[in-house]
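Consider the tokenized backbone below.
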């Protein structure tokens, strides 16, 4: 899944410190439920703020340690966090919608993409999920304000569109029930 706008409130000016990091209600509980459903919870986040000099690696680690500890307090677990520190101009392989990091995760955790979901709040996240061959869920909790008309014009459309991470989790629960 994505981080900004999906698990925490996004900012058009980048999330630059732990002080600016605010979890979306229900995010932590959602991760715990996903764990219980048997999903590995892996984050892939574009953090060009690093190459832009707006946040240090140290501060980013602090945010991710905080996120992991909030989840573990509730008995849940984030299995891995991958991030792309590069500027879009650097043309790296790890910036979404490219899947350099996710390919690593697929090998490391022996994942079958067809059984995975990519959850995110942006068009790029949906493209990322499609590039991996995963199922895709668009959450409308970011700052994009996409209209249904707009989403329907994307060449890679989300399989599901829901309000937020809590609703995405409900969806995963209902899919789990169907597959029993
Ligand atoms: Mg996002
Ligand atoms: Zn990168």
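A designed sequence for it:
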């Amino acid at each position: 899944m994505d981080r900004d706008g999906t698990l925490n409130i996004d900012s058009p000016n980048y999330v630059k410190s732990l002080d600016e990091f605010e979890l979306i209600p229900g995010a932590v509980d959602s991760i715990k439920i996903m764990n219980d459903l048997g999903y590995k919870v892996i984050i892939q986040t574009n953090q060009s703020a690093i190459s832009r000099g707006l946040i240090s690696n140290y501060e980013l680690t602090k945010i991710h340690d905080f996120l992991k500890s909030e989840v573990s307090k509730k008995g849940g677990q984030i299995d891995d966090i991958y991030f792309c520190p590069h500027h879009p101009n650097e043309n790296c392989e790890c910036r979404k919608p490219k899947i350099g990091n996710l390919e690593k995760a697929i090998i490391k955790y022996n994942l079958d993409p067809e059984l995975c979901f990519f959850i995110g709040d942006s068009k790029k996240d949906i493209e990322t999920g499609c590039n991996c061959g995963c199922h895709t869920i668009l959450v409308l909790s970011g700052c994009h304000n996409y209209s249904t008309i707009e989403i329907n014009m994307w060449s890679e459309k989300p399989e599901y569109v829901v309000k937020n991470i809590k609703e995405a989790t409900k969806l995963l629960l209902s899919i789990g029930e169907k597959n029993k």
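The mean pLDDT is 97.
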